[in-house]
Amino acid sequence: MTQSTKEKSKNGEVKPTSPNSDLKLDFDSFWEYSEAPESSDHIQLKEKYDLFINGEFVAGNKGRMMNTINPATEKTIAEFTEATSEDIDLAVKSARRAYEKTWSKLTGKERGKYIYRLARMIQEHAKDLAIIESMDGGKPIRESRDVDVPLAAAYFFYYAGWADKLDYAFPGRKAEPVGVCGQIIPWNFPLLMLSWKIAPALAAGNTVVLKPAETTPLTALKFAEICQDAGLPDGVVNIVTGAGPTGAAIVDHPDVDKIAFTGSTEVGKIIQKSLAGSKKKFTLELGGKGPNIIFEDAPIDQAVEGIINSIFFNQGHVCCAGSRLLVQEGIADKLIKKLKERMETLIVGDPLDKNTDIGAINSKKQYEKINEYLKIGVDEGATIHQNSKELPENGYFCKPTIFTDAGQSNRIVQEEIFGPVLTIQTFRTPDEAIDKANNTPFGLASGIWTDKGSKIFKVSQKIRSGVVWANTYNKFDPTSPFGGYKESGMGREGGLHGLYPYVNLK
Ligand code: ADP
């Protein structure tokens, strides 16, 4: 509350004069913040990155380079190597050697010590990793600082704890490592996805060849430096960079025992086809179109914050985003009004500014895709509402957007947009909400907002999605499994479930 709405009583206590008397908000002045940019002057990045194979940085066999840009400025940050299939072969051989000679020979306790060390070193480098993540990927520093990096360390800590307790994880069975794991990750949570992949693999005694996405390779390359500094035995972690063909070379390599992929459903299907008939184990974590269901008895203000967090968080670059809002008719008008007002307060801009709520869209390709969907939504007859503030002149930025009057068969309701775009539909009964929630090809995550515990249990049982959040959204914890139904993927990551794909049980 601003000072103008308050007066001081005699004892110094601040009291509202007449509640809401002058609360007609002038959003521009009320939410004006001074700039608070995080400095990136001290960040040490190389101009050119080689591949990390067998414990050292080595030039690629053909020497082909790619650029990674800062999507907020469109300026190149660094060059990195495009690994060829010959490079992948070297990386897989190095992982195989490390698997046979060192890593699988260590006791669980010794492996655990290394993984704890990696976790602690991520914490020690937390600030720099967060800044690099925001520069390379466009996400607000508040998120990379408070969500991505601390969670990445937490996943390493969690799986370090399992390394010497595999007999308790799988009572009565002997858990053997799978061997060499090929891991391919996307650009929305680069370091966090790396931790989801590498930590359980190492804990179970496997070695890895990991490829970050071509638009966000930098934190993975920094992690390679951390592996060196941690004294991790050579070849246990290999980081190879490149785009789709490099990923395909990992998938197709005959000496890889397991593939873990997170990315688009489209590429997931290609990978699954290539793996058909091979003995390779695999997990796929793919797209989503998360329904967020708000019942009439929900705590409405918390629900508004939850909705904002579920779709505008990380520019909507979240596979489990609550991109479809289903709201019960009786509260629809009130909720939509509050939501639009809250959306108006969101700050879109410099990812390194601590006030920023919505940073830059990760790449030009993704920026164009989102804008294409905005056109599709309007053409389909939905009503578009956007935050009215100007966007920065340079860089790839999108306004947070709400579509009302969206129909179930509309493409904006059925297809994953992967941007700060929310569709809103209404429902009358819980059954109608469940039908609408389940009526897409995806099933990754969903939310339910209600005052009634019984309704949470009843509805969540019938929703076909891997995660159902109740009266919250986008909460992650290393101990709980994550993964999808239908076209959202196969297998689970996180928690005890996340160890299964990395072991053979005897
Ligand atoms: P998006 O479409 O959201 O960019 P992708 O699924 O294309 O996501 O990318 C996720 C990861 O998969 C990236 O690391 C990318 O380089 C990699 N990739 C893309 N195409 C292939 C492919 N055919 N085989 C293996 N990996 C691939």
Short description:
By secondary structure, the protein is α/β, with parallel strands linked by helices. It has helices at residues 27-30, 85-101, 108-124, 126-137, 141-162, 166-169, 190-203, 218-229, 244-252, 265-275, 300-312, 329-344, 364-379, 411-414, 430-438, 453-462, and strands at 6-8, 14-16, 48-49, 51-53, 56-58, 65-70, 75-81, 175-177, 180-184, 207-211, 237-239, 258-262, 281-285, 291-294, 324-328, 383-386, 401-404, 421-427, 445-449, 467-470, 489-490, 503-505.
| Coarse shape | globular
Query: What is the total number of structural domains?
Result: 2
CATH architecture grouping of the largest domain: 3-Layer(aba) Sandwich
The helix count comes to 16
Provide the structure class: alpha/beta
In helices, the fraction of residues equals 25-40%
Distance between the ends? 63 Å
Find the count of extended strands (DSSP E, 2+ residues): 22
Question: What is the CATH third-level topology name of the largest domain?
Answer: Aldehyde Dehydrogenase, Chain A, domain 1
Within the largest sheet, what's the order of strands? 16-17-18-15-14-19-20
Tell me the name of the CATH homologous superfamily of the largest domain. Aldehyde Dehydrogenase, Chain A, domain 1
In words, what does this structure look like?
This protein has 2 domains: 48-286 and 488-505, 3-Layer(aba) Sandwich (Aldehyde Dehydrogenase, Chain A, domain 1); 291-477, Aldehyde Dehydrogenase, Chain A, domain 2, CATH 3.40.309. It is 38% helix and 18% strand. The chain has 16 helices and 22 strands. Strand 4 and strand 5 form a beta hairpin. Helix 2 crosses helix 9. It is globular. It starts with 5 loop residues before the first strand and ends with a strand. It binds adenosine-5'-diphosphate.
